[in-house]
Amino acid sequence: MLERKEISLASAASHLIVIRCCERRRKIVLTGRYTIEEISPGEYHVLSVESETLIQQTKFSKIEVLETNSYGRGLFLDGRVQNVQGDEYVFNEAMVHPAMFFLKKKCKTALLIGGGPGGQCRELLKYGFIKKVYHAEIDPEMVEISRKYFSHVSRGCWDDPRCELVIRDAFAFLKETSEVFDLIICDVSEPSEGSPANSFFTEEGVRLIQQKLNPQSGMYVTWAGPANPRCMELTSRVVRTVGQVFPVCLPYYIYTHTFGTSWISMIATSRPLNPLSESPQTIDEYLAKQKVRDLQYYDGVTHYNMFHIPKNARKVLYPQMNTDEHR
Questions:
Q1: Residues 211-260: pLDDT tens digits?
Q2: Dihedral, CA atoms, 255, 256, 262, 267, nearest 10 degrees?
Q3: Same domain, 93 and 70
Q4: What confidence score (pLDDT) does residue 69 get?
Q5: Domain limits for position 195
Q6: Which of 169, 208, 210, 239 places its Cα 20 to 30 Å from the Cα of 247?
Q7: For the chain, how many structural domains are there in total?
Q8: Which residues belong to the active site?
Q9: Using CA atoms, how far apart are residues 307 and 292, in angstroms rounded to an integer?
Q10: Are residues 124 and 28 in the same domain?
């Protein structure tokens, strides 16, 4: 039974929290340094912090590198968790490998927008047939910090001759480039007032992305937001916006423990696509044939689970549809 709760909230990711509770007549006192992030109204996700390695304000965001007790080193932007060592592979693998399985050797050129410490760039470069990966990052200080503190994530991907690191506003880069991409992955920070990330959550931004994709087979991957039905306003808006531009949109389900809630990403394309047309065994055999190794999350069975979104989330995403049929 909760006896007393004292929480200090501020804008930074790491806060001092003191919780006093009574359990079976035994008083438990938790004191220390914790991250605290609001998941939905009245609901918070908390990680215990061992130490603060870096706190740095850049032109674009407040960057914190924190050593968490449970998951290791973490990257936080403006108080929001972005990447934590213990389970960064979940989100990074999930953002790359489903689309790469669908595209196969049709994917020669890819653009990664955002993506911070380089985990998704790392995963893309596991495919030997990829000829070029452009990694667009707006904040040069993010790259410097990632090189220094998150080499365990990038694993040398930026030094691969197939990778070109583009330090500039990705929206401006897309407007000016004559390159046509087989795959565009968008992993920018959450949209907020004045953020350059906002452009990628508008119909104009999604249409620009569509124009830069290979018209025959190009695919767009973006996160949409939480899969918690209590806080899916952003998720629903992103799914609707992308759906207004692309004729085929396939949301899928990810659970990254350090996000504190399940998450939805989506693949969009202009051609018909059945995400479950191949068996789990076929997916596993394909990954083995391409020598895609060291996967900790994605395989054939996981692929099948990802494209079965729970009914309560489907009801929010598709309120006008029979959710028993839309799976």
A1: 999 999 999 999 999 999 889 999 999 999 999 999 999 999 999 999 99
A2: -70
A3: no
A4: 94
A5: 88-317
A6: 169
A7: 2
A8: 187
A9: 21
A10: no
